Amino acid sequence: MHDLSREIKSFSAQGETDEEPPKDSPDDRPERPKILVRSVIATRQKVGDCGRKLVAEAYRRGFHASPRKAFVSDGSATNWGVHKKHFSHYHPIFDFTHAICYVYAAAMAGRTGADGWRD
Predict the structure, then answer these.
(1) Would 38 be classed as within a structural domain?
(2) Residues 9, 98: contact at Cβ < 8 Å?
(3) Is 19 within the bounds of a domain?
(4) What are the per-10-residue average pLDDT scores of the chain (119 residues)?
(5) If both were cysteines, with which of 2, 50, 70, 71 could 15 make a disulfide (CB 3.0 to 4.6 Å apart)?
(6) Helices (DSSP H) in 24-66: which residue ranges?
(7) What domain range is 73 assigned to?
(8) Residue 65 forms part of a structural domain
(9) How many structural domains compose the chain?
(10) In this structure, is residue 24 part of a structural domain?
(11) What phi-psi label fits residue 90: left (phi over 0), alpha (psi between -120 and 50 degrees) or beta?
(12) DSSP-based three-state secondary structure for 115
């Protein structure tokens, strides 16, 4: 959780643990889908401009032809507004890792790693 929180939300706490990281990772499973392409869509313009760029990129990638579509977002109303306007036919999925990071940060605030982890 310490590494995940630091990576996703830039939260940090004392990592006081004697535990070894697991030797097997869920990323090592053979049936895991392979990432073929990664890209970033960004703009300093208003969210409407970003939404249109996302639609164009999704179409360029052929997402419209997929029988299963998902829109993953954190709890931001802005992001869900993009879903509602442009991707409402995609299945909405809440990115729970962001929520978990906030819970972890609250538990660790001003405490030792052992005390925070227990709570």
Answers:
(1) no
(2) yes
(3) no
(4) 62 54 70 82 89 94 92 90 96 87 81 78
(5) 2
(6) 47-60
(7) 2-11+43-118
(8) yes
(9) 1
(10) no
(11) beta
(12) helix
